[in-house]
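Hi P.,

Sorry for the delay on this. The queue was packed all week, but I finally got your sequence through. Input first:
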Amino acid sequence: MRILLTGAGGFLGSRLLAYYGKKYEVWAPLHGELDFTKEEETEKAVRAFRPEVLLHCGAISDVGACEREPELSLRVNVEGTRNLARACREAGARMVMCSSDQVYFRGQEEGESREAFLSPHREEEACRPIPVYGKHKLLAEKACLAEQPDSVILRLTWMYGELTEEERQKGKGNLAVTLRKMLREKRSQSFLTTDHRGVTDVNEVVRQMEAAWRLPAGIYNFGSPSSGSMYETARSVLAAFEGEALAEPAEGKNGLRNLAMDVGKAEAGRICFPDSAEGLRRFLEQSGI
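Then the structure:
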């Protein structure tokens, strides 16, 4: 199996490379080796390597950066995806595009009940994302399927996992690392009661990726289902270690936000993730908490 991987320097991409690089022939070009915002360069690179699968993790995923530089986000996240998808079609390669739950980030509509607004999102619903990042990921999905219909789009949740030394030095963090630190230091922290979303162990995403690239073409919610608000999730996880009181409730300034996803379609393809709280509990248990 020949796999072309973009974004190998990122949180997910680096772990995909470490895992699948031991099993298959994986080419993970650096930016200097492949600038996928350039159509001709992308076509030549894909044609030369002849991948069977292209895993596209390369993106500007910093939501704030996309807001500040929307033109750069459009070029990388949308046009870059389009170039790769077109090259895959011409090379006969399957494309797997890593998208985001941010495509579901919309405001609560007038007259919409809290219950209806907080229902887990399904792949077939109409998306009207607010942030630039979510808008561009949605455009990228459409471009990907238009150029290479034999593509699998994965809408990923926020992810967590052990950090490398380099990631720690850059000040990176994630929810699991935060919860572990809270328990070890007996330190309280507030979590939003108004923020509903799933969070997933990055290693689970990596292990399930092989099954993902064999799915029928289309869009899939891919990750752990939500366990309620971020406050409810954190409180539930901490309670398993007698640290329930360390989680304090806080309300977001902008009201409700719901990025929770219905993962039934992936489960029908025999890809299953634990719910967010259970996944976090397992991670912390394995960390020796």
